[in-house]
Design a protein that fits this description.
By secondary structure, this protein is α+β, with helices and mostly antiparallel strands. The chain is built from 11 helices and 6 strands. A hairpin with a 2-residue loop joins β4 and β5 (137-145). The radius of gyration is 24 Å and the shape is elongated.
């Protein structure tokens, strides 16, 4: 065995010992200690190398690290989080199905989410209210209807699902509003994917270069630069 091979073998053994000797306590979060971060980063690199994880996470250990942190806070599998976490113009958001499942599985309420739906005079879906029970008390979200959807511009964008699947969208929006109002800790305060897409549509496309130039300009000459005397 050459000296180079011995050195590589020694380094590999040392790295393995370091990995196995890391003392971690994820109950305090991924970023609570350097050991927690090192272990989470190794996990993130392994996930990023997989072709099974969603495309936003492939070859992107940084995104995987955020997913691991979210999963740790929610006490669930990082892979499950990655399957339901979307990034829309820099905003992390959940799939609406995941929001409904997370509330139902949270144990905070006595029954699963219920949906009170009404139709308009033509028999088409018009409104939906999400509710559940807790300790014998009815917990309600706000009522979402098509008048609100049109007023907010949700139905006007190209390819809007509000035009083709209004009943589904009414349920999704009622559930996401319910979660943010009554149990924001379950969804970590994040918007649903559909809401994030509509916010991005309303704001228009982002020009990262222009934003960077504006940030630099706003901070330029903010503080006087003083050359220290020798």
């Amino acid at each position: 065995m050459s000296d180079t091979e011995r050195t590589e073998q020694t380094t590999e053994v040392a790295e393995q010992k370091q990995t196995t000797s890391l003392e971690t306590d994820f109950s305090k979060g991924v970023f609570a200690s350097s050991n927690n971060f090192k272990m989470a980063w190794q996990m993130a690199q392994a996930l990023a190398s997989s072709s099974i994880v969603p495309q936003n996470f492939q070859k992107n250990p940084s995104n995987c690290l955020i997913a691991i942190e979210q999963a740790n806070r929610l006490n669930m599998s990082p892979f499950l989080v990655m399957q339901n976490l979307y990034v829309i113009q820099g905003r992390p958001s959940w799939s609406s199905q995941w929001i409904i499942a997370a509330v139902n599985n949270s144990g905070k309420f006595d029954i699963e989410l219920q949906f009170d739906e009404k139709k308009d005079k033509d028999g088409k879906p018009f409104s939906c209210q999400c509710w559940t029970m807790q300790g014998g008390r009815r917990i309600e979200g706000i009522t979402i209807d098509m008048d609100l959807a049109r007023a907010e511009g949700w139905t006007s964008k190209n390819g809007s699902k509000w035009r083709t699947m209004p009943q589904v969208m009414l349920r999704y929006r009622a559930a996401s509003f319910f979660a943010r109002m009554n149990c924001p800790e379950v969804i970590l305060g994040l918007y649903s994917r559909e809401e994030a897409e509509e916010i991005a549509y309303a704001e228009g496309p982002r020009d990262i270069r222009v934003e960077a130039e504006q940030a630099i300009a706003s901070g330029a000459n903010a503080e006087e630069f003083v050359v220290p005397e020798e």
